[in-house]
Amino acid sequence: MMRLPGCLAAAETMNVKPCVVLVRPQMGDNIGAAARAMMNCGLDDLRLVGPRDGWPNDRAYVLASGADRILDHAKIYDSVGAATADCVHVYATTARQREQVKPEVSAREFACEVSKHNDKVGILFGKESVGLSNDEIAEANTILHIPMNPEHFSLNLAQAVLLVAYEWRQASTSFEPSVGKPPQPLAPKREVDLLLDRLVADLDARGFFVVPEKRDRMIRNVKNIFTGRPLTSREVSTLHGIIAFLKGQDK
Amino acid sequence: MMRLPGCLAAAETMNVKPCVVLVRPQMGDNIGAAARAMMNCGLDDLRLVGPRDGWPNDRAYVLASGADRILDHAKIYDSVGAATADCVHVYATTARQREQVKPEVSAREFACEVSKHNDKVGILFGKESVGLSNDEIAEANTILHIPMNPEHFSLNLAQAVLLVAYEWRQASTSFEPSVGKPPQPLAPKREVDLLLDRLVADLDARGFFVVPEKRDRMIRNVKNIFTGRPLTSREVSTLHGIIAFLKGQDK
Q: What's the whole-model pTM score?
């Protein structure tokens, strides 16, 4: 399994999770979908600054798909300043380039930065229609840019939350055991070698390798077909069966 | 701006974009939202296998937020095989671990793999309620796993499309130049399907699948042996030759 250095300095685990701050969100649906995205990625600290339709909001619960606990514990604030008072670093999310003179990181760089520290970090997301205002961005230390198709950068609020939370999750969990073991035991090399030797002998007996000067390369090519990925012991037996049946031994 | 080796060998630009194959999608809303996510990430080849509510679908256009062009050009198919006939490599997306013996990559590993080559690749996404069936996964070469919170892995369809498309975009835009093409052209799926159909028919004629209740699973296992990694067109011919010689046709 290939190992990817998606974030070279990422911590193995994180103690302090970032909080997601939705600034003046308009639709309850999007708040609920954002909570679901947070739950998918293991985040749980949701803060709302002046939600347009008040709080709690029934539509949010409809869209949350089981992330009710996050909604139940969401905290409500009047201002970005109050919502991020306990954060040592605040990021302002945007999908388009902004003119403010402020450090800017990509979502992936954000995840790497955050996973190096153990401090409370806040991520601001602006309202659906126009994103964060310049004044709201001014409250942040750093702009967090989600790199998208520059011709169609407009992301749904919950999708923006998902991408940032996803990057956080990738950086904060180790990539190593992403797949787990295959459910079937893999065949030791000797089993595969036996199978291939048998196949080559069968083909040889039938005149498959007819041109002497190509013989070695052909055998290599045949073997490569079956050694391109690990075979399980059961697959090796299946291949023995296939060879036997094609030869007609068990007819 | 910090530079991240998210994918060390990824190509600077890609000529061939992956296609997104939604398999038996249930809600037009999700098809539209998936198209929007594709557009956000610069993908445009959308294929639908048996959409439940027919096609075209008004709700899809409502949710597409300007991705109408992708919906206008969406192609409709009866089966996964038909939808991916021109793909040299097919990935089956899942958010939970599967038991099938098949290579598995994370979304980020997928993006790195794909950006190294210049071949048509298909990404399967299952229906909203249950994801891909085992038979649908069997059509794929590789399982594409989106690593999520294991306690809450259930992603909305459009969000799954977004995460995979986002990883593709990150790998295909900002990183190092690639390592060059594989030496031999890879076989499109229809060539591999023809080979496997022939092998299954030959085995069937010889009584290989003798226990009726195990037949489907055995066929899937046989196919999985040969779809675990992409085969070149030359390897497919070699396998045709092997089958013919084992059967003794050319003795």
A: 0.76
Note the ipTM here.
0.72
Euclidean distance between CA atoms B190 and B185, whole angstroms: 14
Q: Do A207 and B42 touch (CB under 8 A)?
A: no
How far is Cα B23 from Cα B44, in angstroms, rounded to an integer? 17
A89 backbone dihedrals φ, ψ, rounded to 5°: -150, 130
Q: Is the dihedral of CA A33, A36, A42, A45 positive or negative?
A: positive
Q: What secondary structure does DSSP assign to B86-147, as a single string? A: T-SEEEEEESS---S-S-EEEHHHHHHHHHH--S-EEEEE-BTTTB--HHHHHT-SEEEE--
Give yes or no for B37 touching A (CB within 8 A): yes
pLDDT of B100: 64
How high is the mean pLDDT of chain B? 86
Q: CA nearest A84: which of A93, A97, A75? A: A75
According to DSSP, the residues that pair with A23 across neighbouring strands are A49
Nearest chain B Cα distance for residue A247, angstroms: 5
Q: How far is B78 from chain A (nearest CA, A)?
A: 30
B105, closest residue in chain A (CA to CA): A179
Do the chains contact at B4 and A6, CB–CB below 8 Å?
yes
With CB atoms and an 8 Å threshold, state whether B208 touches A105. Answer: no
Q: Name the strands in the sheet holding A19-23, side by side, starting at the edge strand that comes first in the sequence.
A: A75-77, A45-49, A19-23, A121-125, A89-94, A142-145, A104-106
Question: Of the candidates A141, A154, A169, A148, which has an alpha carbon nearest to the alpha carbon of residue A18?
Answer: A169
SS3 track for B170-210 = HHHHCCCCCCCCCCCCECCHHHHHHHHHHHHHHHHHCCCCC
**Of residues B25 and A4, which shows the higher confidence score?**
B25
CA distance A111 to A175: 14
d(CA A166, CA A40): 8
